[in-house]
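re: ur question from earlier - yeah i can do the single chain one, its not a big deal. heres the input i used so u can compare w yours
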Amino acid sequence: MIEIAEITLKDPGSNKILWSATAQEEFTACKILGTAARLPHDKHLRILSFGGDPQLLLPSSTAGGNAKSLRLETSLLVKSRDEHNQGMSRDAKWDNSNLAT
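and the output i got, formated as tokens:
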């Protein structure tokens, strides 16, 4: 499981922020595809990877532009195994109906 607290896309030349997400409303613009599923969370983007091809797609509004390169910055939350097990039972009850078949 991956928990993302922040995603920022920047122009590396000017360090200008082109797009960012730090709240659940902003994370909903991202698509989760491949061997991954979005898990419910009140603050962060929580993703379960269940295979070798998890994909997180940024909003289509971030494509285009004339930038030759972009910088993607992410803030990931890391928990110990014990914290993770306690958090899963406390934070979210997830059912596998979210998985694509």
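DSSP finds two helices and five strands in the chain. not sure if urs matches, ping me
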